[in-house]
Write a structure and sequence with these properties.
Elements (H helix, E strand, L loop, with lengths): L4 E7 L3 H12 L4 E4 L24 H9 L59 H4 L15 H15 L24 H13 L6 E2 L12 H8 L3 E4 L2 E8 L6 E8 L5 E11 L3 H10 L24 E9 L13 E2 L3 E2 L3 E3 L17 E7 L10 E9 L8 E9 L5 E6 L4 H19 L4 E7 L2 E4 L10 H10 L39 E3 L14 H20 L4
Parallel strand pairs: 1-2, 1-7, 2-4, 7-18
Antiparallel strand pairs: 3-11, 5-6, 6-7, 8-13, 8-16, 9-10, 11-12, 12-13, 14-15, 16-17
Helix pairs in contact: 1-6, 1-10, 4-10
Cofactor: FAD
GO molecular function, one term: oxidoreductase activity, acting on CH-OH group of donors
Organism: Komagataeibacter intermedius AF2
Length: 555
């Protein structure tokens, strides 16, 4: 074993880890980032010249990926030949689920994590998310409010240069926008049709972060520029080490991915932010005499109250004649190509609207007219819904008692099951999406969700040969199980009471004061907007607090 001392060790280099490293190094601390995957090169984030984007089904690339070991990753909605290297090989990175409760765990093991392959949509949450229970909408309240997080949202947005508009919507607070983003003429006509019929629904452009064009996320580049960051790639964290007398964190034990060598690095504090499932797995595996049930688990809640947003995906057509305004230049993603789109923030069970069939709400993200279609033909519509799952103790991450990965870490066992509240919400979520597409003459062709597959006017890909349609009909519902939203959260939740939570309001372990968990595992509720911007802001806030505590000698 080897040993090196740092002020802080950060486990994970994605959305949370990158901003943790940025804040800590800019506060003058020496930081080691441990990353399980490799570092990327310029060629990894530029599509090969000899590969076309293909059609939106990507059937044969998915089949090839399945045969090569990506039988889970190839089900993600935006999977393509040009993106597959940014997702893990499922044969090498296994996990288990109950037989009757599949879960899609979509992962990217590389410096920057899933930041290279996510949709880059970044909306703020509001007190409808943070304080929903106080508003009588179920779930639990966070131990912080929108006002606590707003300055950190400002800092993240200013640093990233978010493109978007200020829309004055209570459930999606306005942020710091570097420049506006356009809707297509078809999306503008959709917006006007929807808002005329349902005044409480708002259709806005994406607020998104353009790709910086390089293999390292901007947050890590900023941390590296301080001269106080060390990144250790290909290092699989196995255990957070603790002092046998005090129980405080002393460092991290990790395995070199290529050689199998076991190494140890020491630090004054440890920040775990490897993504919710990986972070919980690491903490559960960090048992000791003083932490027999996992690190920081005196409440017995570690691993419990795991959530993901309830996904639905609908395809249809918008009348080609329904266009408003002129075409505008559209944003382009390095790997996705033409991107951007429309977003519908939460409106159900908010702002005076209430559905007694369920609590909490949902959002929609989609696109109309962003890709070429035959002249005069109806324009394809693709809209994905994201519904908020309530936190249930029985939805949990545990360690598989029999199976380990090749680095000796027990596989995670994932249980994430929608209850009656989520099923009722999904039915309304799907109905609302169809109603909006069908207003002003649009057509709904097919949709899928954890409730199953449904077909409407033209059905599922009518232009495809029957064998392909049959195969897609069999496989498509498996792509819209829980996990497909890729917005998982919970498992190490914050709270005001150490008896019912793992972390305090600064993502600091109640039991281990020099241990912080700053990814979405810290979330008490799962929300309906994307989690990434909130993860970045919470991680910066927590690490600013960590730096202050270190300077004050309290850690």
């Amino acid at each position: 074993m080897t040993g090196t001392g740092y002020d802080v060790i950060v486990v994970g280099s994605g959305a949370a880890g990158g901003f943790a490293a940025k804040e800590l190094t800019e506060q003058g601390l020496s930081v080691l980032v441990i990353e399980a995957g490799r570092t990327l090169s310029d060629s990894d984030i530029k599509p090969p010249a000899n590969k076309s984007s293909g059609d939106n089904v990507q059937l044969f690339p998915r089949i090839r990926a399945t045969l090569s070991g990506q039988h889970i990753q190839s089900r993600v909605a935006f999977f393509s030949e040009t993106l597959k290297h940014l997702f893990v090989n499922d044969r090498q990175h296994g996990y288990t689920t109950p037989k009757d409760a599949p879960f899609l765990w979509i992962r990217g093991r590389q410096a920057g994590g899933r930041l290279h392959a996510f949709g880059r949509v970044l909306f703020r949450w509001s007190d409808y998310d943070f304080k929903g229970a106080d508003r009588g909408d179920g779930g639990v309240d966070w131990p912080l409010s929108y006002a606590d997080l707003a300055p950190w949202y400002d800092r993240v947005e200013t640093f990233l240069g978010i493109h978007g508009t200020r829309d004055g919507i209570e459930t999606a607070p306005d942020g710091v926008m570097a420049q506006p983003t356009p809707l297509t003429p078809e999306e503008r006509s959709f917006r006007n049709a929807v808002e005329a019929r349902w005044p409480n629904r708002h259709v806005v452009p994406w607020r998104f972060n353009p790709h910086n064009g390089g293999p390292m996320p901007s947050s890590l580049k900023a941390a590296m520029a301080t001269g106080r960051l060390t990144i250790r790639p290909d290092a699989v964290a196995r255990e957070v080490l603790t002092d046998p007398a005090s129980g405080r964190a002393t460092g991290v034990c990790y395995v070199e991915r290529q050689t199998g060598k076991v190494c140890v690095s020491h630090a004054k504090a440890v920040v775990v932010c490897a993504s919710p499932i990986e972070s919980v797995r690491l903490l559960l595996n960090s048992r000791s005499r003083l932490h027999p049930d996992g690190l920081g688990n005196s409440s017995g809640t570690l691993g419990h109250y795991f959530m993901d947003q309830c996904p639905s995906l609908m395809f249809g057509r918008w009348p080609a004649s329904s266009r408003e305004g002129e075409d505008a230049p559209l944003p382009v993603h390095t790997l996705f190509g033409t991107t951007g789109g429309l977003y519908i923030p939460r409106y159900e069970n908010a702002c005076g609207a209430h559905d007694p069939a369920f609590t909490r709400g949902y959002t929609f993200q989609g696109a109309i007219g962003r890709h070429a279609s035959p002249r005069g033909a109806d324009v394809p519509v693709t809209i994905m819904g994201f519904g908020e799952m309530l936190p249930y103790r029985t939805n949990a991450i545990t360690l598989d008692p029999r199976r380990r990965d090749r680095w000796g870490v027990p596989l995670p066992h994932i249980r994430c099951v929608p209850h009656a509240n989520e099923r009722a919400m999904l039915r309304k979520q799907i109905r609302d999406c169809a109603d909006m597409i069908e207003t002003r003459g649009g057509h709904v062709d097919f949709w899928a969700s954890p409730l199953g597959l449904g077909e409407g006017d033209a059905g599922l890909y009518p232009d495809k040969p029957f064998p392909i349609r049959w195969f897609i009909r069999k496989m498509f519902p498996k792509s819209m199980t829980m996990g497909a939203a890729i917005h998982e959260s919970g498992g190490a939740r914050m709270g005001n009471d150490p008896a019912t939570s793992v972390l305090n309001p600064f993502c600091q372990s109640w039991d281990v004061p020099n241990l912080f968990i700053t990814d979405a595992s810290s979330f008490p509720t799962g929300g309906a907007l994307g989690t990434t911007l909130t993860v970045m802001a919470i991680s910066m806030r927590a690490c600013h607090h960590l730096a202050e505590e270190l300077r004050a000698g309290r850690l």
